[in-house]
Amino acid sequence: MSLRTLYDKIWDAHIVSEQEGGTTILYIDRHLVHEVTSPQAFEGLRLAGRKVRHPERTLAVPDHNVPTTDRSAGISDPESKLQIDTLLDNCATFGVEIYPMEDIRQGIVHVTGPEQGFTLPGATIVCGDSHTSTHGAFGSLAFGIGTSEVEHVLATQTLISQRSKNMRVRVDGELPHGVTAKDMALAIIGKIGTAGGTGYVIEYAGEAVEALTMEGRMTLCNMTIEAGARAGLVAPDQKTFDYLMGRPKAPKAGAWEMAVSEWSKLSSDDGAHFDHEIVLKAQDIAPLITWGTSPEQVLPITSAVPDPSAIDDAGKKEAAERALAYMGLTPGTPLTEVPVDKVFIGSCTNGRIEDLRAAAAVTKDQKVAAHVNAIVVPGSGLVKEQAEAEGLDKIFLEAGFEWREPGCSMCLAMNADKLAPGERCASTSNRNFEGRQGKGGRTHLMSPAMAVAAAISGHLADVRDYQVRD
Amino acid sequence: MEKFDKLTGVAAPLNMINVDTDMIIPKQFLKTIKRSGLGKHLFDEMRYDDDGKEQPDFVLNKPQYRDAKILVCGDNFGCGSSREHAPWAIADFGIRCVIAPSFADIFYNNCFKNGILPIALPQDQIDLLMDDAERGANAIIEIDLENQTIKGPDGGTLSFEIDAARKQALLEGLDEIGVTLEAEKNITEFEKNRASAQPWL
Ligand code: SF4
Questions:
Q1: Distance between B75 CA and the closest CA of chain A, angstroms
Q2: In which element (H, E) is residue A280 found?
Q3: Which stretch of DSSP H or E encloses residue B186?
Q4: A21-42 b/e with 16+ CB inside 10 Å = b?
Q5: How far is the CA of A64 from the centre of ligand 1 (A)?
Q6: Which pLDDT does position B12 carry in this prediction?
Q7: What average pLDDT does the structure give for chain A?
Q8: Which of chain B's residues have a Cβ under 8 Å away from the Cβ of A198?
């Protein structure tokens, strides 16, 4: 057999049938569902008199709309409430398991899936959400789909799809002190651009990727969609197996050994062909920050706001001018002199326990600047519980952060957590698009530790200037 | 799904790169549990000011583009969130064809599920169409999916590529789920094999 990439192997193992021209019926092992992109899909099933083919391969959780403050009185926004109630109803009607808001397991769908062991190596995983790429950290082929496709998967447990091209991104060497998986992701996007991965599935490899924890790999794969690629992949290894062992939905003893021996075969063959390959040196990556309204508009924190007149490409120049006007920034201003109003630590990119630990390490014995409103939103109820068991909540609260209930929160501001027009936010989320965190809101993307540095200093700041305390 | 074969109409120029789906339809309109009625919110934050009044400069607010059926755009159109509300809003506004140098994958897929034809063309051809579109209401463009051609207002014709299966689905307005379920035998067979080889899945 010819040499195959990890992506090829997973793809091949899921072909139900293939038409001439490459259009494939692809089998889907796991389907995650949330409240925003599913109501019209369930409605479609109902109208056509169809059932969910495999409710047991489907897991639902409300996350985008849930309030992150006191939930005892329920959801006050009537539209959010209707959407979440609709999800509960649909799950009851179609027999799909759901973790409702009151359940400790509730959280952002891409935090919950791995946490429960629902995400497994070699599996195909979809969700009506672009950041489904997160799950690729486990060596599963995971990607976002639209609502019509959600309906298709619910009804058939398959998807009509076309094979992507293969790209490998290798990061060699060791990340410097203060540089995280988030910086690695931003560095890659900065290098290839937000459309650089279009049409590809990216496999991440190299020492710096192998050295990442599972949480770090999830951060990296999560941001893959911001590089335009549909899915990111990291070959599973002992860390992957250790993370999964004993999780509620992972294979149990007996099946476990068999699964691990299958999973151990999941890597690209030596010499397999990649349509495109890029290599980065880990030691060249600095703590990064976005200055514009696209994740590719990224620079080391030690830089100044760029000058659009120095950009050659006409489209990029115009985009930069528009971005600077929107962001209220003047070319030449050192990034570390840009004041912030809000700080958001959370999201499916950086709302896991390791992210909160990293943030707490910088927060300890410090105070949030007086003019800054800073919130920490754990990615799930279980992350929150774990953080509280470790006392991280106290560190944040003593410093002046708010400590919230789990959900998407200010990542996309569908609930009450949002920026006012003109407000500037240091955010650990994944998108700095215009209006993403609230109409007129200005978002700078960065790692959790960098966001804390911004909270403490009151302006964008270099985490390397802040002592990390154990 | 609505069929797509030929389309004749005005093209609106939206000369921006990286137009994301948050711009196409902001999150406050994602709270709906329906597919319909999103056209009035298409490009909401660029189209209206804070009081909900139309911004006269925005292309779709200009009289000559209010009935546009085609959108000519910059590179990487539809990036970001997977929200199918984006094509729903575009279709509900009356636009059935989007032309750009490149599209984000999920948005591109979503178009086909909603009777919208996304056409990717090299930048120099986009530049020509952008010029045509700038000329306003009398610059009518004709799209012919069967023959894969775009005829400009001056009679010049461009051709475009499209995957054969997707073309057929659009031409026939196929119910994809129905078609897949015709192959249910294969799915069941696959599941049987899978259950013995990888019982944990
Ligand atoms: S945290 Fe943000 S990016 Fe992640 S699923 Fe929620 S809204 Fe989407």
A1: 8
A2: strand A276-281
A3: helix B184-197
A4: eebbbbbbbbbbbbbbbbbbbb
A5: 7
A6: 97
A7: 96
A8: 76, 102-105
Backbone phi, psi, residue A424, to 5°: -110, 135
Length of chain B, in residues: 201
CA atoms within 13 A on the CB side of A8: 16
What pLDDT is recorded for position A393? 98
Secondary structure element (H or E) that encloses residue B111, with its range:
helix B105-112
DSSP structure string for A441-459: -EEEE--HHHHHHHHHHSB
Regions of chain A short of the pLDDT cut 70: 1, 468-470
Task: Map tokens 């279709």 to a residue.
Answer: B91
Residue type, A63: D
Q: How far is residue A356's CA from residue A385's CA, in Å, rounded to a whole number?
A: 12
Distance CA A134, CA A226 (A): 12
3-state secondary structure A171-235: EECCCCCCCCHHHHHHHHHHHHCCCCCCCEEEEEECHHHHCCCHHHHHHHHHHHHHHCCCEEEEC
pLDDT score of B10: 97
CA distance B133 to A280: 42
Please tell me which residue, B139 or A325, carries the higher pLDDT value. A325
Interface A-B, measured as beta-carbon pairs within 8 A, has a size of 178
A130, A219, A265, B174 from A23: Cα distances, Å: 21, 31, 26, 15
Residue whose C-alpha is closest to residue B100's, from B16, B159, B169: B16
Spatial contact of A59 and A53, defined as CB atoms under 8 Å apart: no
Q: Class assignment of domain B6-174?
A: alpha beta
- Minimal CA–CA distance to A152: which of A26, A22, A17, A13? A26
Residue B85: both structure tokens together: 């509300």
Question: Which residues of chain A does B26 touch, with a Cβ-Cβ cutoff of 8 Å?
Answer: 435, 439
At residue A469, the pLDDT reads: 55
Strand partners, A25: A17, A160
- Using an 8 Å Cβ cutoff, are A434 and B23 in contact? yes
Question: How close does chain B come to A175, measured CA to CA in Å?
Answer: 28
Chain A residue numbers touching B199 (CB-CB < 8 A): 255, 258
Q: Across the beta sheet with B6-14, what order do the strands follow?
A: B117-120, B97-100, B70-73, B6-14, B140-144, B149-151, B157-159
Q: What is d(CA B85, CA B83) in angstroms, rounded to the nearest whole number?
A: 5
Residue B137, pLDDT > 70, answer yes
pLDDT at A73: 85
| d(C-alpha A224, C-alpha B5), whole Å | 35
Strand B149-151 vs strand B140-144: parallel, antiparallel, or unpaired?
antiparallel
The residue extents of the domains of chain B are 6-174
Amino acid at A251: P
Tokens of B191: 């599941």
**ipTM of the assembly?**
0.92
For B:18-37, CB contacts with A below 8 A are: 18, 20, 22-23, 26-28, 30-35
Question: In what helix (H) or strand (E) does residue A316 lie, and over which residues does it extend?
Answer: helix A314-327
Smallest CA–CA distance, residue B11 to chain A, in Å, is 20
| b/e code A307-339 from CB counts within 10 Å (16+ = b) | ebeeeeeebbebbbebbbebbebeeeeebbebe
Q: Looking at residue A206, what is its pLDDT?
A: 98
HSE of A163, CA atoms in CB hemisphere, 13 A: 22
